[in-house]
Each structure stands twice: as C-alpha cells, then as structure tokens.
Amino acid sequence: MLLQTFNEEIISVGSRVHIRDIESGEREVYTLTRPRDADVRQYRISTLTPLGRALYGKRPGNVVDVHAPGGVFLVEIEAVEQASYPQHARDG
C-alpha cells in the first residue's frame, strides 16, 4: 500500500495562489475557500468556481485551462502559500 504524504505545494482549501494569465500576462493572487467563505472582492474564491476547480490539486509551474462562462483561458500557477494554523490545530 502506498501512503500519500501532505505536500505543502499542492493547492487546497486555504491555499493562497499566485497566478498569471498566459495571454495578458496579468498577475493575481487568490485564496481558495469553501463556497460559504468566498468573497471575490477580497480575492477569496470558492473551490466550486471555474477558476477554483481548475486550480484545486495543482502545483506551482502547472498551466491550467479555466473553463469560464466567457470561454476558456489559460493561467500559470506561479506560487502557492498555505494557510498557517495555530499549533494546537495541527497537533489534534
């Protein structure tokens, strides 16, 4: 049986993701959240949005297709930062 270990570079809920639009070169930073915590004005996007679905489970260096209502666009994942949790939350 193969055990999988947690990799801090894999995008998950709470990850802060630095992306670059391949076509325009525009860079943005989003935090991936649960749907109830999303707030696009604060750059907090749900895992259920087209961009959130495209990013979830990916790593820095990946280029992903985002299937949005306005069409498909490509973004490169430049960096991933994980949320920091209090020590007691990690020890449980």
What do you see in this structure?
- With 92 residues, the protein is mainly beta.
- The chain has one domain: Transcription elongation factor, GreA/GreB, C-terminal domain (Chitinase A, domain 3), CATH 3.10.50.
- The protein contains 2 helices and 5 strands.
- The chain has helices at residues 50-55, 87-91; strands at 16-21, 27-33, 44-46, 63-68, 71-81.
- The protein has a 5-stranded mixed sheet.
- The longest helix is centred in the middle third of the chain and has 6 residues, at 50-55.
- It is globular.
- The chain starts with 15 loop residues before the first strand and ends with a helix.
- Mean pLDDT is 86; it is low at 1-5 and 85-92.
Brief descriptors of the model:
92 residues; Chitinase A, domain 3; 5 strands; 12% helix; 36% strand; disordered N terminus; disordered C terminus
Summarize this entry quickly.
The chain is mainly beta and 92 residues long. The protein is 12% helix and 36% strand.
Helices and strands in order, then pairings?
Blueprint lengths: L15 E6 L5 E7 L10 E3 L3 H6 L7 E6 L2 E11 L5 H5 L1
Parallel strand pairs: 2-3
Antiparallel strand pairs: 1-2, 1-5, 4-5
H and E string: EEEHEEH
Helix content: 10-25%
- The top-level CATH class is Alpha Beta
Mean pLDDT: 86
Strands, count: 5
Low-pLDDT residue intervals, each spanning 5 or more residues: 1-5, 85-92
Tell me the β content. 35-45%
Euclidean distance between termini CA atoms: 25 Å
